[in-house]
Automatic annotation (TrEMBL):
Transmembrane segments: none annotated. Its main location: cytoplasm. Residues 36-211 form the tRNA(Ile)-lysidine/2-thiocytidine synthase N-terminal domain. The gene is tilS. Residues 258-311 form the tRNA(Ile)-lysidine synthase substrate-binding domain. The lineage of its organism: Bacteria, Pseudomonadati, Pseudomonadota, Betaproteobacteria, Burkholderiales. This is tRNA(Ile)-lysidine synthase. Residues 1-21 are annotated as: Disordered. Residues 1-17 have a biased composition (Polar residues).
Amino acid sequence: MAASTTPRPKPSESSSPARGPVEAALADVPVGVPLGVAYSGGADSTALLLAAARLRPGQVQALHVHHGLQAAADDFERHCAQVCECLGVPIHVERVDARHAPGDSPEDAARRARYEALARVAQAHGLRTVLLGQHADDQVETLLLALSRGAGLPGLAGMAPSFERDGVTFLRPLLRLPGPVLREWLRTQGQGWIEDPSNADTGLTRNRIRHGLMPALEAAFPAFRDTFARSARHAAQAQRLLHALAQDDLSAMQGDPDIAALQRLPRERQANLLRHWLAAGHGVACSSAQLEELLDQVQACRTRGHGIRIKVASGRVEREGPRLAWHPAI
Ligand SMILES: Nc1ncnc2c1ncn2[C@@H]1O[C@H](COP(=O)(O)OP(=O)(O)OP(=O)(O)O)[C@@H](O)[C@H]1O
């Protein structure tokens, strides 16, 4: 870990510094409400914290999640506490056990545990809004990861600029700023940050994208951050339409999917409805192969005695009279 902290004057003492790119990116962040900043100690959330503390003196609180996964986690926490002291910003530390279940991705498990912890600690301190530090390069990496998995529209929509979780609004105000701009700005401010050693681990796909693909994209398509982000916004817009259509189709069935009513819809619209029913209603993602099999079964179900029983994720979808029903694994 290379942590370097330059003591800085408290925001209230600084002589109104010229607005840089990071402060400008925070222009739309709500005024007059207490703000949480999810602060890992890394470059991006350090830039976010510094700019937020300057723009909204007295309104910002830092939220740090201690993952307990890396031996260096205690050093990260100490570094964050020191920076917050210099900035005159209160810090709340939440400890999580981010160990992953067998078969689960360690990164996904850590991310889930982190958002749960951030929402919990924000609520405990009366913070309804929390800022996250993801930037334009993170968005490109997310899109490339989605493409590499063969993701559909929800994945290609990338990270949303805002989302709600457990009564807390999370905002990503830096989503249009390139990562190198953030780091350069931090250098000009003389503010240090933590370089997380796991960022150099090329065993992680995200790091292979960062170190191998991003420089190639920069050379081939200099505007790739903007154009990829535009594609993600198009995908997000189309996904919202599909979501609304699925809600309408499902509510017209007044309950679980009705097999005869499904059969009257085009196959893609059946697929859209079933994916939504499983994901929004039951928190289940089905694979393309499982969905195709379910659609074939729905299509073939023309007699009273025709049964349907298909494994989906860890449970199964079955026919119950005229409708489909979801049964989680016991
Ligand atoms: N341990 C943590 N505690 C609090 N917030 C965190 C933590 N880790 C990540 N975050 C938040 O989630 C955002 C995205 O996480 P990501 O893993 O991409 O960041 P990072 O590389 O750990 O740190 P940074 O984005 O600050 O350089 C961070 O910018 C930060 O706002």
